[in-house]
Amino acid sequence: MDTYAALYLRSSKDRHDVSIDAQRTELQQLAQARGLTIRAEFVDAVESGKDEDRPGFQALIAAVRNHRRGWSTVLALDTSRIARRRQIAIMFEEIECRKHGVRVIYKSLPDADPITEMLLKSILQAMDEWHSLTSKRKGLAGMRENVRQGWRAGGKAPMGYRLVHRETGAVRDGQPVLKSVLEPDSHTAEQVGRYLRDRAMGIARKRAKVAAKLSHVLDSTLVGVEWNALTYAGHTVWNVNGEREGGRYVGGTKRRPRSEWVIQRDTHSPLITDAEAELILGRLERAAKARQAGVKRERDRVSAAMLSGLLFAPDGTKWWSESDRYRYKAGGVQRSVARETLESLVLEQIFADLSRPEFAEALVNGARKALAGTRDRSEIRKLQRQALELERQMAKLMDLVVEVADRRPILRRIEALELERQGLVAKAEQLQLEADLALPAEAITLPMVQRLLATLAEEAKENAHSGLRASLSNLIERVELDPKTLSATLSYRIAAPVSGARLASPRGFEPRSPP
Fold it and tell me: pLDDT tens-digit profile of 411-433?
């Protein structure tokens, strides 16, 4: 097995990078000079070396761990082929390869004694990481400048727009340089605009997509449309998505906090207003914050009893549904009411409340108060400083790795520090999000809320008693029904006046003991 080898070939997106074919030729010559027979080949074409989330590299690691692989040497053109991050390169060579009796030979690394080889390799790996960070910085700076000038930073046009390429006045390789801007798409712009306006009003995604004639579009696609709300308000937005490493988002979140977004305003025709965009983003950010905090969304099962789980006595004791009645039994008191009668009276009261001007005004005030958020960012800065200090500690430990014989304790410590750093970053982003949520409060207006309430009332009337359970649980906190007087009070989840409805005692309301 000592005379057999595997090749690892990787090319990047850089047009000046060494091609896969050129690398293969170079390594075949190296294998011949070393008396090695090539038995396997692992390839990553047009893949970045800044992380390990590469199919060819992952397949190589899996093969290294397999004692039946049939080879004991990996040939690569240079250290940057394996990785442009020292930590990844060291983990691959010192943990994976050394543990399984595999050596790594680089074409660009001259033969030398072990100490000199270790020194050269450390220098080259440090240069690889420097090159990666420098290239990244230059690329990001170029994209940021593109956005600042009102151009797109790349990617396809979002639904509802199309890309239009225009000459910038610059010339490269004898050809005019073209950059893109957005223009509304005549076929889909109106539909997407209608959908987003309805979502800004709080109309359910399913209902909004039907009204906008977008029923054929997947919900996951429409969620992406909503996250692009500022783009649909006419602004070019960049640096939204977080960086990925090892197949995961750094910090554990897909999107960066709003404070890190790069926004160039008024670069193309809008489909919605800024206020509507802020309402949509505020709802998405609150939902994301809840998920990060581990609060799972409860999906209520549709029950035949519309008030199931919502009906209580004043002392907190629950009424329950049985057959066609709601029943109560506690403290020696037993009572039952006809389900259909009670539900009809509750719905009638809800319809009346939704049309009251003072109800809408209270909802506006409550929503603005809820979105007030906090602007204190001192804790955020503290967490960011702590994360930076952990990065410094990790860098010092990485320098020690090449100087000690047993590297495993240091590598384990580095992994522990990285997990701690990611936790600090995630917490800082949560607090940043809470601070950013103070922005949309002024966007809540009375006409906007009145339209929302009218839509809710219309939806409730259309559904009547069928399938209304989930909608009610979003609107009503609880219904209090006094078993002695049959007086009912509705408590809403929104900050609005509590309404009371005196239930008459029609036939069927007489006390009846449960079976």
Answer: 788 888 888 888 888 788 767 76
